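Why run this: before we spend reagent on co-expression, it is cheaper to look at a predicted model of the complex and decide which construct boundaries make sense. The entries below are exactly what would go into the expression plan.
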Amino acid sequence: MTTIVELLLRRLGASLATLLLVSAVVFLITNLLPGDPVQEMLGQAATPEVVEALRAKLGLNEPAYLRYLHWLGSMLSGSPGVSIANNMPVAELVADRLPRSLTLAGITTVVAVPLALLVGIVAAMHHGTRTDSIISGLVMFVVAVPEFLVATVAVLIFAVKLRWLSAVSYAPPDPTLAEFLETYALPVLTLSLVLVGQMARMTRAALIEQLQQPYIEMAVLKGASPARVVLRHALPNAVGPIANAVALSLSYLMGGVVIIEVIFNYPGIASLMVDSVTNRDFPLLQVCAMLFCAGYLILVLLADVAAILSNPRLRK
Amino acid sequence: MFVKQLYRRLGLSGCLGLALAVLWILLSLLGPVLAPHGPGEIVDYEVFLPMSAEHPLGTDYLGRSVLSRIMDGARFTVGIALAAASLAALLGTGLGLFSAVSSKAVDESVSRLMDALLSIPNKIFALVMIAAFGSSIPLLLLITGVTYTPGVYRIARALAVNINQVDYIQVARARGEGRLYLAVSEVLPNMVHPMLTDFGLRFVYIVLLLSSLSFLGLGVQPPNADLGSLVRENMSGLWEAAPAIIAPAAAIASLTIGVNLFIDSLRGRR
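The model came back. Tokens follow.
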């Protein structure tokens, strides 16, 4: 038991260390700017004294590592500064948008994971047959094209041709069921499609690896039906790798939502981040970037934890 | 004869993929010369025209020829992605080899740094870089190249570490060969094949990332336009299902799917 705890703790420590390194990288990139941000903020008319005063006020005269530590501290204490673009506290902006993105991600997960497992298992059960190659072909198609293409095709079919849904998401404060579906149908559909593609592919691979083990041959020779072989014998042994695959695919959401939120005008954290890029709103940008990196690291950590916990050799 | 051999080696989907990849490379080289109109030339007063003999892929939101714009835009997508994939392969393989033959401390610190870079999602890294430096073609090349370097590094290092254990390397080491000789003359040649397959996949990822950035309006900037920008600028034609938006999207898909099919067939047959 101690080995598992030790492994998990060490893994957690490594994640935290990585997050720290990532924060240094983000800070470095956003502070390498050519030109003087203060001069830019105040315009050409500002006197050198005013520029100097503001520099001192913003702490820009301190050495870089001190500024990094201050920045890190303010981020950890939950008051990461004020947005340049609209003068609102960054924390407030993020607190408004983050739940919306999490809702979108949550619904997508609930839709995509069972579907992906089903598709992956069916493909693995029919490994090497026409069913498998059709599924694998479709999956490859979805994974190999950009998300905005999947989104565009979805809009084209469901909103333009069939006129079932509107192409723009807006989330009213207290949505009725119909409004709720209207808002989430297309973004969730698009994100799920890409996610199902990734997850199903990895699930299939994990299961097929199990199906090639000697104990499966034994079960087949014993006369177990194909469904029993897969569900009763192979699946329990593939749970670890599959959980690992699911968490890794979910980390894809971090990039996928960027495109989806922008296309559907969904007011989440990713569209906030894209706005901060166009406005060069660095305090906001840094926080958004760190949130995405932290989310990504958490999912990768979960994937590793799943792999560690499911390894029976460590369970003694 | 040659075609038959190729078919036997790659299969139907592999040949189709290869044909699509070759088509796009040719288009990116010859597109601007072969295009019926200039990319900025307004050919019709009607916007979002459907396909016709006169305008094979219709007209875009300003009445320009969509076919000509795609033929002109292909070189940005294919060119930047090829250059960036090469950059990633060069940096990643170089660092991977270096780590594999270096001391444990060096190996460990390079690996940790790469892990940190790997845990910044590609799009997020690109957004931060573009916010800081502004979007330009050299910067896009650098971003897409650097963001895929850690992935290449992981594979290259793993391969190099494995090859490093093999007998003939031990013999060369016992013979007193230096690290540079070992890395370049003994280990590297045995990595070329898997690294080339990896190169193809990175190319696809980079095309996807680049088009996504252009689609967000943060990639290739006007007056130049890559395939992603073409989809973006014609978004208002979505409600008419105009070919101006479908054609460039389909172009990206045929490029990435083509390369994918080709690589899959190479892997499957070996």
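Residues 2-34+80-315 of chain A form a domain with the MetI-like fold fold (CATH 1.10.3720.10). Chain A has a mean pLDDT of 81. Bring this page to Monday's planning discussion.
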